[in-house]
């Protein structure tokens, strides 16, 4: 069985920057200085990011960020070009579809509503103890869907996605050069196929 394992924010929907904006607003409201590049944290679990940014105030930041995100999504989130078409074409070619996201399940459901995509499996950040870049959620998806890793494909938009896919041994890894200001040259050297949108993934896979 082959599985297409998809990140969600910045991969299927234009929500990576919505998450980033929610973090920025929440940090400002709480008066917490930002000492790291937020772009590099995207793709990690919400709770993990909150702990990195706010230390002992992480729960306060976690709750405020989630409230702000819920307010922003309906106004700002849109599906990426060909996102739904890619999923439908992959299903027609025999792929099972897993969305593996570091976002909370409640946030993921809101983002998926924007795309109109219904995956065979959704694994969210609060479903697992170890999130990306750890391969655990990717391996869990393969196990549940009985997928062969060498036949399976990963599509994401961050270094954390790439690391999780690579460590899980996926046969092909696509990284979308999207909303975040990331240097993807190193990932290309390590085997990632850099694309602009899900439309390019369809073309590369012959979907």
Automatic annotation (TrEMBL):
It holds the Pfam family HAD_2. The keyword Hydrolase applies. InterPro entries: HAD-like_sf (IPR036412), HAD-like_SPP (IPR051806), HAD-SF_hydro_IA (IPR006439), HAD_2 (IPR041492), HAD_sf (IPR023214), PGP-like_dom2 (IPR023198). The keyword Hydrolase applies. Keywords: Hydrolase. GO terms for molecular function: sugar-phosphatase activity. NCBIfam families: HAD-SF-IA-v1 (TIGR01549). Belongs to the HAD-like hydrolase superfamily. This is HAD family hydrolase.
């Amino acid at each position: 069985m082959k599985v297409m394992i998809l990140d969600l924010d910045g991969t299927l929907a234009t929500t990576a920057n919505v998450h980033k904006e929610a973090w920025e607003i929440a940090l400002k409201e709480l008066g917490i200085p930002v000492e790291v590049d937020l772009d590099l944290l995207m793709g990690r679990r919400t709770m993990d990011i909150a702990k990195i940014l706010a230390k002992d105030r992480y729960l306060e930041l976690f709750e405020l960020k989630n409230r702000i995100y819920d307010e922003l999504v309906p106004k700002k989130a849109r599906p990426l070009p060909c996102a739904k078409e890619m999923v439908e074409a992959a299903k027609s070619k025999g792929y099972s579809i897993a969305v593996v996201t570091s976002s909370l399940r409640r946030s993921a459901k809101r983002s998926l509503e924007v795309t109109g995509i219904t995956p065979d499996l959704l694994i969210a950040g609060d479903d697992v103890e170890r999130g990306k870049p750890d391969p655990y959620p990717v391996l869990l998806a393969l196990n549940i869907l009985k997928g062969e890793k060498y036949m399976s494909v990963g599509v994401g938009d961050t270094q954390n996605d790439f690391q999780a896919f690579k460590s899980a041994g996926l046969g092909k890894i696509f990284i979308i050069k999207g909303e975040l200001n990331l240097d993807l040259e190193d990932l290309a050297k390590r085997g990632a196929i850099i694309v602009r949108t899900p439309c390019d993934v369809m073309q590369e896979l012959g979907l």
